[in-house]
Amino acid sequence: MDAASLRAQIEAQQPYAFAVHKREQIGRIDTGVAAIDGITGGIPLRTLTEICGSNTSSSGKTSVLISLLAQATQEHYCALVDASDSFSPESGGAAGVNFSRLLWVRCGKSMAKLRPLEQAFKVADILLQGSGWGLVAVDLSGIPERIVRRVPLSSWFRFSRVIEKQSAALVFVEQEPHATSCAGLVLRISTMPTTFSANLFTRLNLNIEIVRGPGKKPVQSENSRFSLQTQWA
Amino acid sequence: MFACLFVPDFPVQAALLPEEQARRADLRRSPIVIWDGPANLLQVVARNNPARKAGIEIGMTKLQVEIFGGVIARKRCAAEEEFAQHKLIGCANAFSPRVESTCPGTVILDLSGTEKLLGNLESVAGKIERLAEESGFQLQIAIASNPDAALYAARGFRGITIIPSGQEAMKLARLRVNVLPVKPEMRETLESWGIRIFRALAELPEIPLTERLGQEGLFLQRLARGEIRRELALTDEIPRFVESYEFDDPVETLDSVSFVLNRLLQNVCARLMSRSLATNELRLRLNLEVRQREKGMIGEKYQQAWKLPVPTQDKKVLFSLVQLDLEKQAFIAPIKKATIEAMPMKPRMAQGNLFAPPSPEAERLEITLARIRGIVGACDGDGLSCVGSPRLLDTHKPDSFTIESFSSVATTSSATATASTVALRVFRPALETSVQVTGTVPNLVRFARKYRRVLAASGPWCCSGNWWNNAWSREEWDVALKTTAGIGLYRIFRDRIREQWFVEGIFD
Fold first, then answer.
1. What is the DSSP annotation of A70-90?
2. Which of A194, B273, B318, B423 could form a disulfide with A63 if both were Cys (CB 3.0 to 4.6 A apart)?
3. B395 touches chain A (CB under 8 A)
4. How many CB atoms neighbour CB A178 within 10 A?
5. Nearest CA of chain A to the CA of B403: how many Å?
6. A58 and B506 in contact by Cβ < 8 A?
7. Which residues contact B435 (CB under 8 A, 6 or more apart)?
């Protein structure tokens, strides 16, 4: 019996045995950074995305987040869960964030019993229970790495399962990736030599690496360089 | 034409109104009495038909009633009767905007001009009866050409009575005189004359009657003939939607309070719905038990108000808001009385916009925000809200913003995304630091417990303001520091008033 007849015999019993199931086309939100959008196509909806970068060096992760918020708030209602209350409305305004469509949750500011990380996770959970959000961003970059590392994998798994059913993007901004395979897209941003022009800081040169992306194995990372100008440049 | 809605044994029906429909039907078959008065001298003030048949009379004491056995007794509750009356008015409002609340258990509505809308009088009466039945009332309904004829017909006849115009005297003829507002001495006089029914009173000659009983006697006779015509005393156009409950014993547990608040909200929402209204502002007042202090007695109360972005009639949404707030509170004394008030307004009549972005459901969003506030807190130490939309203040002072309440309705996109720029990650509050300066340029900056060499510096950028009040003055520098992870671009500043250096944030 040759392969074709064997295949025909199997398909007679199981019609979809050899069918290739294509992934459902999912929407994306542009980050506003051409270099990132060029290699990733934007931040995917229904997926958990991690944007990582160092906390002590100028990695550019906050700039990417704010640029993403500026793009997303043009068309969607967005929520920013700020675990360390480090969002700068001035930077947001300069990037063009539509504040009327942005819900900013400042964690760790009151005498609440929970720690900022727990607050951020609980708030993200509540936001994802409701519908209507286009982007839920959780900024954990101000939380020490040793604390975020303790978050159990089950929490990340639950977030990835919940966001699959929502027409929204879930973005975590951290120092290191923690969600492992639960994340559909992992971007690592790092700094390059910075440009000072005549005693004026004008440009931040950055390198972006796709640690994990759709259809790519973790080892097949992709790099790209880009630069961001300062507001006064 | 005028229709009168009369609720027989109103205190009994009012007491049964909060019960489930099936339970209410069961209870109606049992003898029920409502009593009132001081605890040691309770007397029957109302009873239903089974109790009447059993021989229970108005004015009987608790001891006398207990002899009968199997009698369900309830204490009279003014709040229940008030709620029932509001509900009855609501029923009437469903058919006419011109309604008179004549007395507890009786309302009269003007049906003039509603024929084309509601159909003939029999049809209207049937509709009113069905709506009242759904609302929990068993009514006696009468329709007549004047309010008083309708009133006495409703009080005197069971079921539905329709009196054609001009036949009032004939239809009312069989009614007993004691349904009229007759003073006791006049009733004795009429009794001595053998006048017991309307017909007998109506047939008396007018002049001799006026000579003996005065204008009051003549007025009674015209009532008996159905000749009095008057304007309705209309109820207030916008009533207050307030419900309150006073506990017999002050309660300490949240469950007990929540149960009562849920019921109060149910009543408020039912009243709002009956008038096709909604609310966008809810007020809660809890009176706490009066505590004894050294200088006399003082009362304590807790008040809270919620403003909603869109008006709602959903009691679940309102109850969730109240419950989430109460869960956070720790009361210093047991709760004695709970009052809920809803500010009425027209419901939102907005059709979804096909071209608007999907947004969180406005009614549910308030609950979501309340739950988030329960986790992160409502305000920070400076009184700024922890949950909301940021808004930049019109000032040159860095990091000046306020937080406005977030709403998913009526937002317009005023900002447009610009080319990506470097953003500042702010440290709140700014980190106090020490800086070594060579000349005027920072050379070493102490950060994360280490002195770090400044690789490049840009500055100083000086700014100041508010010299008249809370003055601020600063000298900003953008510095590149060598860190373990690479180069960090930080914004540092010197507070020229306090002569202290701070790290404001990192360009990230």
1. HHHTTTSEEEEEETT----HH
2. B423
3. no
4. 21
5. 9
6. yes
7. B442, B443, B444, B445, B446, B492, B494, B501
Q: Check CB contact of B388 with chain A, cutoff 8 Å.
A: yes
One-letter amino acid at B188 equals E
**What is the DSSP code (8-state) at residue B61?**
B
Alpha helices (H) in B379-447, listed in sequence order: none
pLDDT in tens, A31-52: 888 888 888 888 999 899 999 9
Of the candidates B412, B415, B419, which has its C-beta nearest A97's C-beta?
Answer: B415
Chain A residue closest to B397 (CA)?
A90
To the nearest whole Å, the CA of B391 is away from the closest chain A CA by 7
Give Cβ neighbours of residue A21 (< 8 Å, ≥ 6 apart).
none
Rounded Cα–Cα distance for residues B18 and B7 (Å): 16
> According to the model, what pLDDT value does residue B402 have?
92
Q: Give me the residue from A67, A119, A191 closest to B376, CB to CB.
A: A119
- A57–B486 CB contact, under 8 Å: yes
CA triplet B431, A200, A96: central angle to 5 degrees? 75
Tell me what the mean pLDDT of segment B139-154 comes to: 90
Cα-Cα-Cα-Cα dihedral sign, residues A134, A156, A50, A21? negative
Contacts of B507 in chain A (CB under 8 A): 58, 63, 201, 204, 230
Write out residues 21-60 of A within 8 Å (CB-CB) of B: 31-33, 53-60
Contact across the interface for A229 and B422, Cβ inside 8 Å: yes
Q: Under a CB-based contact definition with an 8 Å cutoff, are residues A183 and A212 in contact?
A: yes
Query: A117 with A140: CB under 8 angstroms?
Result: yes
How many other CB atoms sit within 10 Å of the CB of residue B415?
Answer: 18
Which residues in chain A are closer than 8 Å to B380, comparing Cβ atoms?
106, 109-110
The answer, for B403 touching chain A at a CB cutoff of 8 Å, is yes
- Residues whose CB falls within 8 Å of the CB of residue B180, separated by 6 or more in sequence, listed in order: B152, B220, B223, B224
**Residue in A with minimal Cα distance to B447:** A56
* Distance of residue B471 Cα from the nearest chain A Cα, in angstroms: 21
Pair A227, A203: CB distance under 8 Å: yes
Structure tokens given for B211? 């000579």
Dihedral-angle region of residue B332 (phi above 0 means left; psi in -120 to 50 means alpha; beta otherwise): alpha
Q: Is the pTM value of this prediction over 0.90?
A: no
- Nearest-CA distance from B385 to chain A in Å? 9
Percent of chain B with pLDDT over 70: 95
Give the contacts of A135 (CB within 8 A, at least 6 positions apart): A29, A43, A68, A69, A72, A76, A78, A79, A168, A169, A171
Look at A229 and B387 and tell me if their CB atoms are within 8 Å: no
Average pLDDT per block of 10 residues along chain A, 233 residues long: 86 82 74 87 90 88 92 91 92 90 88 84 92 92 90 92 90 91 89 71 84 65 77 72
State the Cα–Cα distance between residues A205 and A226, nearest whole angstrom: 6
